[in-house]
Structures are given as structure tokens and as C-alpha cells.
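SEQUENCE-TO-STRUCTURE ENTRY
===========================
Question of interest: how does this chain fold, as expressed in C-alpha cells?
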Amino acid sequence: MTTLIRKTIFALRDKFQNWLDGDGTWLRARYPRYAIGRGTYGWLRVIDAGEGATLKIGAFCSIAKQVTILLGGEHHTEWISTYPFPALWRAARNIPGHPKTKGDVIIGNDVWIGQAATILSGVTIGDGAVIAAGALVAKNVAPYTIVGGNPARVIRQRFPDAVIAQLVKIKWWEWSDAEIEKDLPILMSPNVDALIQLAARKKQ
């Protein structure tokens, strides 16, 4: 292996590692108008037609390739015509109400969004939720719930209701980096009881 090839490989590795291990810096740099939490990484396309809606993404979210979030630009299905006359016809530019937004998109913490998923305006996705690849999310998603399909429907909950209630209260993503690093063996396991006990000790 030549020196040039070796340097190129290490440069690419370091670039990817910085992107992967970052605290959301890469996404925040690309989308400075939106609130993006620490540790969140991935590819993201945001469509914003300027209706005033915004995007908020929590900490430690995993976003796969080709994920699209629409903050607006939607059409009025309740109108006689869905055609975007104000955008394309000068005579309609002073008629209000188009393009359409249903409001902000709010994505919680530790959410996994699969490849090519689409999230429409006005949607709130709860902490710990999973969005399956290719899903079209038009309605709110409850915490720790897996949804998929077009339109997205509930596939299953990740944990029982009582456990979900505990996880939402624990909010491990608000712990310091040092605490998270120390407790990785628990976070990277199905041992929810151990996490609940750990969180209880932290409060003492």
C-alpha cells in the first residue's frame, strides 16, 4: 500500500469518525435554523417552503439516508383544487393559505429513523420511537413505539406501558458524557430493570 493511499484511507476514516462521533455539529452546521440535540447524526433533507414552521430534533437520534422532513409545502386536499396556484399563477399570489403547513416537526430523543422515511409537517415523534425504512409519517408517534408503512401505522411498542413510563422519566440522554460512558453496558442491553435501579440510585 502506497503512502498516498494510506493517507487517503486514514483521512476518510477520520472524516467519517468525526461525523459519526460528533455531538450534532455536522447537522447543526448544515441546518443552523433548527434545534438539533447532542449526539444526533445522519443524513437529512428538510423541505421548508417558508410558512414559519420549524424543526426540533432531540439528542442521540439516528437518521438513515434519504430521510425527508416536510415543514410545509403541502397541498390543500379540502380545497376544490389541490393545484398550487399562488406559486405558479401571478393572479393568485395574494390569495392566502398556500403552501400549507400543519405546524412544527418535533422529534424526541434516542429516535431511530430508517432509510427513505418521510415525516410530514405537524408531526411529533416521541422519545425512543423507531420509524421503519420507507415509512410515511403523517400522525404523531408515541414514545418507544415502532411504526412503518404508507401511511405509517403502529407495528408494536418496544416495551410495556409501565416500562415506557419509567424510561420517559429517566431521560438518560440528559446525563453527562461521563455518566453515559460509565453506564454503556446497561444502555446497550435489554436490562431495563437495571437501568431503572441505576436511575433511582442517581437520585439518592
About this structure: The chain has two domains: 3-158, 160-204. Residues 3-21 form the longest helix (19 residues). The first strand starts at residue 35 and ends at 36. DSSP finds seven helices and 14 strands in the chain.
